[in-house]
Amino acid sequence: MATSSSVFREYSSFNPIVLEKKGRLKIARQIWGVLRRELSDRKLTSLALLDIGCSSGIITNYLSEYFGQVYGLDNDENSITIAKKNFRRRNLHFSVGDAIRTGLPDESFDVVVANQVYYCFEYPGDFIKEVFRVVKNGGLVFFGARNKYTLWDAQYHLPLLAFLPKFLADFVVRIFGRSDGFSAKYMDYWQLAKLTRNFEVKKITPDIIKNPNYYGFRDIAKIGWLTRIFPANFWRLVEPVFPNFIWILRKK
User: Fold this and answer.
1) Residues whose CB is less than 8 angstroms from the CB of residue 191 and which lie 6 or more positions away in sequence, other chains included
2) Rounded to two decimals, what is the model's pTM?
């Protein structure tokens, strides 16, 4: 997931869970569940997809079964080496690169997957600008984003880090041996809305909670009784406090 402009270095060493197949396949199925709904009017085998922060390529390889040309980008050389070794398809390509200076042509992708990567950059705005540049007009971005105010930090596997002053968060991750400091650049709901303002944004997180089977989110479906208690408008009202957001960004 890391890139050379990232606040994380050698991400697979920092957070080795990204190399674990079962969990990555679950995420792949969720991303595919969303994309196939959003692209139901398109011939998928004619589309080019870029997976930014592809890590060991498990998700990228899964998506290559459905799309025409699929590219995975990451600056974690260890991850890319693993991806190239494990996954070989004629339409699948992996490369080491910087996600804010990709060197890719303007408007070269129909679909970009940017799942849980925005906070890896010192300046997330530079990352979003690069995504906007490489996606085609009318193309879409799968944008998975962690909320700044989530109770459990999935990167450091510790609670409440984003609520702490920076010096204290640094101390906590060091004392637990997680890292040299707390580096994630998390944003809240409104900051993310501002970050993505140049796109047309479709916030589908409430729809996923209300209809998890439709999108392939099996974990949420297991507690379907809970999601059915409240109407759809309730989930839209409380979306700013969700730990994670899934938005579809369309380039106007």
Assistant:
1) 148
2) 0.90
